[in-house]
Amino acid sequence: MKIDQVKGAMILQLVKVIKSNKSGIYEDLLSKQAKVVLNKRILPSVWYPYDAYKSMLIAVFSVEAKDDFKKVISWGHTEGQKTFTELYKTFVGKSEPKTALEKFARFRKLMFNIGDLKVENLTDTTADVRYIGFDSDFKVYYYVSVGWVEKFLELCMDSKVTSEFISKSWEGDKETVVRLSW
After folding, report:
1. Of 73, 99, 95, the residue nearest 151 (C-alpha)
2. Where are the domains of the chain?
3. What CA–CA distance (Å, rounded) separates 61 from 155?
């Protein structure tokens, strides 16, 4: 049986945010599994339980972003910038949109052993990204991911990138699709 997992690179910043808050507010928000992971030394290239990541991300969203999805996209930009320029620099390089999106899909596969991304309707100025087989109700993840992919493309294409959701799995659509524009 396959266990859903995420690389430590995706958890590191969440752990820092949670540990820096000394109020105790996270105690009631985190799952038991998340608390176990929180007390480990997190290494960027090691796999950790997906459910712990999900619990941490939802808790941080609630406490730090105060349920504001614009802040979550911005946080995705910030964390993406750090990750792509410090830990995974080899992925970032001047690229055409198709190549940049393919590189982002490969990066995501390295970070999550669940789900996939499919690029569709690629034009000179837009592309649709379809999330396949991922946690359909995990709305916060999709917003963070939008921030990551926007920042990744901006770094690769040296162009401002915006996005809009075309379909939303957490609202009952079959899959989540994001239209990216540059």
Report:
1. 73
2. 5-63, 69-181
3. 25
Q: Which two tokens stand for residue 50?
A: 């997906």
Smallest Cα–Cα separation from 91: which of 69, 106, 109?
A: 106
In sequence order, the β-bridge partners of residue 131 are 117, 176
pLDDT tens string 84-134: 888 777 888 888 999 999 999 999 999 999 999 999 999 999 999 999 999
The beta strands (E) that lie in the chain are given as 5-7, 47-49, 116-120, 126-132, 162-167, 176-181
Options 3.40.430.10, 1.10.3720.10, 3.30.70.100, 3.90.1520.10; CATH for 69-181 is: 3.90.1520.10
How would DSSP label each residue in 10-23? HHHHHHHHHHH-TT
Q: Which two tokens stand for residue 119?
A: 């690029």
How far from chain centre, in Å, is Cα 133? 15
What is the model's pLDDT at position 91?
81
